[in-house]
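Incident review: delayed structure delivery

Summary: a single-chain prediction request sat in the queue longer than the usual turnaround. Root cause was a stuck worker, restarted by the on-call engineer. No data loss occurred. The affected request and its eventual output are reproduced below so the record is complete for anyone auditing the incident later.

Affected input:
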Amino acid sequence: MAEQQPLSTRKETLMSQEKTFHSTDLPNPAPKNSIVVGHDGSEGANYAFIMALELGEQLSTPVIVVRSWSTLTVPPPTDREVGYASSFDEYASAVREEMIRTLQKTAESFGTVQVAYEPVHAPPAESLIAASRDARMLVVGTRGHGRLAGMLLGSVSEKCVRHAVCPVLVVRPRD
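Output delivered after worker restart:
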């Protein structure tokens, strides 16, 4: 009997098989003076979001929150009926609603900063690089996998640092 893969490995395998992403899946560039921040729901992403809001406040510039999603990571739409297959637009709306629900309170504490939420059905690094093409800055968090694990897993922050056109700030959690 074959040994079953850990859930995280199975999930990564399924995500890679979900569909081939094309350039049309990538977001349009954010406005020129904006700060783009990646947010995947992790603690590192929360620190990056706060840093982006602080910078947005200091620089009087809007913050665009980008979350990459797949059908394996998306929350089910709230109005989904049993037996009904949701559309990609409905999934994107569910992701956006979750982003607002989890981030709005923090965003409101920076009352002068305009915040927009952008769910993207595409790989994370590619989504952030495309969205930040015209932005003032891209802010990303870390998950703390370390140098070796980051190389083996394909770190999103590493790809952004190497390929983004704008400056990239990688935020580590504060001790």
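Verification: The radius of gyration is 17 Å.
Action items: add queue-age alerting; document worker restart procedure.
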